[in-house]
Design the sequence.
């Protein structure tokens, strides 16, 4: 756990974008495109009406949407994406009650070579069933997941659903530690982040990001607790859990890390209530980019989750 | 001088209930509250002699079953508009056993 | 260099070593024994390791490098066999180590209930990595089941972890609510609800009889007969300090190893720290005092002064998403005052216990934001006189954070049904109000809401208040008691609508202002709950008035009356002989024939009750329930069997009615009569239900009275057959059970709801009548039984004095 991985790794997610409503359209607020500048340009020139393209669809349907093939779909930037080698995308709407705050879009490529999973689980008949998911090369794990369902409290999705809080799980593949463990182990999945995604319809959705060692979604994960019921008048947020490929465990029972409003990227999320995508200086040492996503509960902003590369 | 006597296990008395200890001076009611505190009081309401051990225990009080006088279990003093007091005896729980200070209860009859 | 030997690499001894090395790395040559084959790890974080939310590597406090860097000789996986205090050597399995100073950090082991089967493979504690691994492996099989014995901190963390791993988990807890040492019933209720939402089954008052299995665990059987199949059983009922080695070495040991405030044992060169320590009668299980001890021990080892003091402790549960906090002392007391805050909508409960001008205890669930601030006030013994009124709102109180009682109604959607009888939705009522119906009468007239049974009256008024705001003056409804602002009708409605199935559920979800009610509300709630949820709710004897708790009528001198049932007023010579024998045997001063056609034995001593019942039971008699808010008697005349005027078998019908209804609890007492002809010898026309036999069948009358008020029955229906009489009567009684206010006799209740509504429910709506009968019979499947026999079998000890000091004095 003390291996410092500073060399750039091939990552599961290649592009991350934050779209925010402006009037009746979604416009690009921030994006991390790596070297894919042509796709970045195409994106900056685009905006989406409600129901239009992938971000617009996540807005109108008010739920997370997985899109695994762009050709012939409602995806608007197909040509630019194809040139950039991007093949799949997931859009996650961020609602505060009925109000759309933003849509986070992540795009992936090289399906045959990169392993990881981004899954959307939805409540159906009192169980959590796989709504859709993008798995890259982890085909067997995809099949297993399609044939799995989670009752309340069971496994990462069921745990997130029942506890109404994000959960970070370790060592997904180490034998017995995860309900889909055997297959997860074979696929090389190590760390899982599960997020409750509230929607105005009241249907419960859970998003999971399952990261593999070779092509990680992130090398550092953080869960910040910002609920008033936890923080009171202090505001800000406290680091509830986190792990880091460089620093190891980030939680400390005795002196937990705190984030204040407007201070650093997490503070930006607390202040604006919007997702943050950051690159370069100002983020945790040893990392080149980070995504921080706000999660809303019944009483407003409840948690912030962040992942770093 | 105290004379702690083990009178039984805490579980022998139901929560928010009471049991009686017979003594040479008459019956003493030992109460167990919802918080597992124990209190010992004379089992006789000063109003009409009702058995307090048969009353409903709520919070730190007991209501006499005969005419609804309410007594504080700590002090034995009647609450509200009623005036009166019943004698109390020291009692405590240790390792799940109820200990009653029987100094006043045993000594006299032995003498 | 002096030689220091430490036995046990736990959290306390580990922390002591850290302090020692930090202060003076060269003070000692250290050898560390540990029975576990590894060094010190953060044992209290095993539960997230179990759940998969942490990896074991993350909770290792001291790895091999740490011991190497600090020159500590480790003897891990090696047990200490004995200690020779004369030669000052520790004798391990692999040889001796001399010491100048010796530290016991032997910790504690799990307490295992010595029930049959406790040593079967598959029964584990939750103390170390091996236990955790065993539990994880058990969870690998799909559909595997776990039973956790013990609903304290450790047991619940184990349960949550196993559930997250995919197991079907049941928690067995002996006490009435979870974590009873740290939480009060209201917080325990919220915790249980939270765990149940995670799919964990919680059984309270569950006493384990045995663990069974052939060669390995297959299940757990409870004292009440419940059988729970299990692949693994986790025993988490408590810990027991590990003191055998210290005892064998001749150190002073009580419940644990005696130490002074410098952590010195009865041997000045031997110290002890952690869970194996007893200090001033206290033993320690939470981590905070262990760390305090570790600091003191390090100072003592360095020859510096420090003193260990016992401080207030706080508790948090490590289950992701469960927010609870408890600290200090929250027992009731004469000089103590409770401040209770409940926000049912957010699932928040807070209780502060104040003594004098100091905060002495705090329990919080769902909102723990200010827990550290409160804990500080408790620890420091701060004077809170100035802020007493607003204390519960925490340090940031800015006035006006009060929960709005109308918020729940305001939040209801328009299609929420307000009046179930007439199918009126909130939207209809709001529309009527906006159209000018601005008081209850007008709403009733225009929408028919609350025009039938009236139980929704309070709700309609709240809709008026929400819609009209300040323009509406809420009529002052009579609240149930000082514990709540809700009326009996509101409480009954909400118990049904919100499916509240326990007393703490009602207190919390309806925002009770007191901790556990009072003698006014508790008996009423107990009835409402058992009437509405016969299968789920367990009758609470401690919430019953004495007569119902002891199944006998208390007399003014504190003695009791005993009255066996005489079905329909019929008895036999054998029964009469048994009654006479009992009267003799127990010195019954008064024997009386009652107006209800049976025999009352008056003046029985409380402690004799089980014995006299047993005698009467043995003669075939059961309790006459002459003390209950339930069916009393069915009075009959002799009918066609003997009487020349009789038109039907009134005695036989009376017996059938009594056999159908006996044992049922009702809002107030219920008396019946069956007269064989309109001459009415059984006085059926002033009963709660009175049947008059006529040539063409039966006239069923209800709602009569012959007490403070005298009132003739009103005709419910005329029917042809005995079966119909039984159905109509059961349906009427069930309607009364489901709707009446506690302590309203049927005639009062019928006057409130109107006989027309009762007729519509019982007579006109055939399907509803059958549904009422079915619900009555469901309830009777639990309650149609003899309380005497039950109390003789199960509750007998409670009737005897717990102790007799008269004998003690004589010795």
Sequence:
């Amino acid at each position: 756990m003390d291996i410092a991985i500073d060399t750039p790794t091939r990552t599961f997610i290649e592009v991350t974008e934050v779209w925010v409503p402006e009037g009746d359209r979604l416009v690009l607020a921030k994006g991390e495109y790596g070297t894919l500048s042509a796709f970045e340009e195409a994106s900056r020139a685009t905006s989406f009406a409600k129901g239009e393209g992938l971000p617009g669809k996540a807005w109108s349907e008010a739920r997370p949407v997985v899109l695994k093939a762009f050709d012939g779909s409602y995806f608007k930037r197909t040509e630019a994406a194809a040139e950039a080698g991007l093949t799949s995308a997931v859009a996650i709407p961020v609602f505060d009650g009925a109000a759309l705050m933003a849509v986070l879009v992540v795009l992936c490529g090289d399906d045959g070579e990169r392993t990881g999973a981004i899954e959307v689980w939805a409540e159906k008949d009192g169980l959590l069933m796989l709504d859709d998911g993008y798995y890259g090369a982890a085909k067997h794990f995809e099949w297993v997941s399609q044939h799995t369902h989670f009752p309340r409290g069971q496994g990462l999705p069921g745990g997130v659903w029942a506890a109404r809080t994000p959960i970070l799980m370790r060592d997904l593949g180490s034998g017995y530690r995860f309900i889909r463990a055997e297959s997860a182990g074979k696929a090389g999945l190590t760390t899982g982040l599960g997020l409750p995604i509230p929607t105005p319809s009241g249907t419960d959705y859970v998003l999971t990001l399952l990261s593999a060692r070779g092509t990680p979604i992130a090398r550092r994960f953080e869960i910040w607790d910002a609920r008033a019921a936890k923080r009171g008048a202090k505001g800000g947020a406290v680091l509830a859990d986190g792990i880091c490929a460089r620093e190891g465990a980030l939680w400390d029972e005795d002196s937990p890390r705190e984030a204040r409003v407007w201070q650093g990227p997490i503070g930006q999320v607390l202040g604006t209530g919007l997702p943050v995508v950051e690159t370069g200086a100002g983020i945790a040492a040893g990392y080149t980019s980070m995504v921080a996503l706000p999660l809303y509960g019944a009483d407003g902003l409840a948690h912030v989750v962040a992942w770093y590369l | 001088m105290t004379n702690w006597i083990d009178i039984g296990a805490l579980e022998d008395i139901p929560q928010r209930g009471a049991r009686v200890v017979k003594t040479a001076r008459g019956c003493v009611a030992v109460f167990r509250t919802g918080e597992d505190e124990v209190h010992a009081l004379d089992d006789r309401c000063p109003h009409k002699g009702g058995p307090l051990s048969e009353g409903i225990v709520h919070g730190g009080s007991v209501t006499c079953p005969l005419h609804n006088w309410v007594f504080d279990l700590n002090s034995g003093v009647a609450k509200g508009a009623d005036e009166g007091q019943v004698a109390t005896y020291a009692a405590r729980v240790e390792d799940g056993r109820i200990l009653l200070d029987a100094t006043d209860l045993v000594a006299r009859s032995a003498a | 260099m002096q030689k220091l030997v430490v036995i046990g690499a736990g959290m306390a001894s580990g922390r002591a070593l850290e302090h020692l090395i930090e202060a003076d790395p060269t003070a000692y040559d250290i050898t560390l024994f540990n029975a576990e084959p590894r060094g010190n790890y953060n044992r209290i974080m095993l539960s997230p390791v179990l759940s998969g939310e942490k990896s074991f590597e993350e909770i290792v406090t001291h790895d091999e490098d740490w011991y190497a860097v600090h020159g500590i000789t480790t003897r891990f996986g090696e047990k200490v066999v004995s200690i020779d205090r004369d030669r000052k050597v520790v004798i391990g399995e692999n040889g001796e180590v001399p010491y100048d100073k010796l530290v016991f950090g032997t910790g504690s082991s799990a307490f295992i209930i010595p029930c049959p089967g406790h040593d079967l493979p598959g029964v584990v504690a939750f103390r170390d990595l091996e236990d955790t691994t065993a539990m994880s492996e058990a969870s690998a099989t799909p559909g595997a089941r776990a039973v956790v014995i013990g609903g304290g901190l450790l047991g619940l963390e184990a349960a949550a972890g196993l559930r997250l791993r995919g197991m079907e988990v049941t928690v067995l807890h002996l006490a009435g609510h979870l974590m009873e040492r740290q939480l009060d019933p209201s917080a325990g209720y919220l915790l249980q609800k939270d765990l149940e939402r995670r799919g964990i089954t919680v059984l309270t008052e569950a006493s384990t009889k045995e663990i069974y299995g052939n060669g390995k665990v297959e299940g757990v059987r409870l004292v009440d007969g419940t059988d729970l199949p299990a692949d693994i059983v986790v025993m988490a009922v408590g810990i027991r300090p590990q003191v055998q080695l210290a005892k064998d070495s001749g150190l002073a040991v009580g419940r644990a190893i005696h130490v002074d405030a410098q952590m010195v044992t009865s041997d000045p060169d031997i110290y002890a720290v952690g869970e194996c320590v007893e200090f001033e009668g206290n033993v320690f299980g939470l981590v905070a005092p262990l760390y305090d001890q570790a600091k003191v021990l390090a100072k003592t080892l360095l020859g510096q002064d420090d003193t260990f003091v016992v401080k207030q402790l706080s508790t948090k549960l490590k289950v992701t998403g469960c927010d609870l906090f408890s600290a200090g002392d929250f027992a009731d007391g004469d000089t103590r005052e409770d401040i209770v805050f409940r926000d049912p909508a957010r699932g928040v409960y807070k209780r502060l216990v104040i003594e004098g001008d100091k905060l002495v205890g705090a329990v919080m669930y769902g909102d723990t934001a200010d827990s550290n601030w409160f804990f500080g006030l408790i620890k420091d013994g701060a004077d809170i006189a100035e802020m007493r009124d607003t204390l519960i709102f925490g340090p940031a109180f800015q006035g006006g954070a009060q929960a709005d009682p109308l918020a729940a109604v305001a939040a209801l959607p328009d299609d929420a049904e307000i009046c179930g009888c007439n199918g009126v939705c909130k939207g209809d009522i709001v529309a009527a109000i906006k159209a000018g119906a601005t008081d209850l009468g007008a709403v009733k007239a225009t929408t028919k809401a609350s025009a039938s049974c009236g139980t929704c009256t309070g709700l309609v008024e709240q809709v008026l208040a929400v819609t009209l705001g300040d323009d509406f003056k809420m009529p002052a409804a009579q609240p149930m008691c000082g514990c709540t602002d809700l009326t009996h009708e509101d409480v009954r409605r909400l118990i049904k609508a919100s499916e509240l199935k326990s007393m703490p559920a009602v207190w919390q979800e309806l925002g009770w202002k007191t901790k556990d009610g009072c003698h006014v509300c508790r008996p009423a709630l107990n009835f409402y709950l058992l009437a509405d949820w016969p299968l789920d709710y367990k009758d609470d004897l401690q919430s019953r008035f004495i007569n119902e708790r002891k199944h006998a009528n208390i007399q003014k001198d504190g003695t009791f009356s005993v009255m066996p049932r005489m079905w329909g007023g019929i008895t036999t010579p054998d029964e009469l002989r048994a009654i006479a024998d009992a009267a003799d045997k127990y010195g019954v001063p008064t024997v009386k024939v009652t107006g209800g056609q049976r025999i009352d034995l008056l003046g029985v001593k409380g402690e004799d009750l089980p014995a006299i019942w047993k005698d009467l039971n043995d003669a075939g008699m059961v309790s006459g329930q002459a003390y209950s808010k339930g069916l009393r008697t069915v009075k009959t005349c002799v009918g066609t069997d003997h009487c020349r005027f009789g038109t039907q078998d009134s005695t036989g019908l009376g017996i059938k009615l009594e056999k159908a209804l006996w044992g049922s609890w009702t809002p107030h007492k219920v008396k019946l009569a069956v007269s064989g002809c309109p001459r009415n010898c059984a006085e059926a026309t002033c009963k709660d239900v009175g049947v008059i036999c006529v040539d063409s069948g039966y006239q069923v009358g209800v709602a009569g009275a012959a007490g403070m008020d005298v009132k003739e029955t009103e005709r419910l229906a005329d029917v042809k057959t005995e079966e119909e009489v039984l159905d109509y009567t059961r349906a009427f009684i069930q309607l009364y059970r489901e709707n009446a206010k506690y302590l309203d006799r049927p005639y009062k209740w019928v006057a409130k709801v109107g006989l027309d509504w009762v007729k519509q429910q019982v007579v006109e709506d055939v399907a509803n009548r059958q549904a009422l009968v079915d619900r009555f019979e469901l309830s009777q499947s639990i309650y149609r039984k003899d309380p005497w026999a039950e109390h003789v079998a199960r509750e007998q000890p409670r009737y005897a004095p717990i102790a007799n000091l008269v004998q003690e004095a004589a010795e």
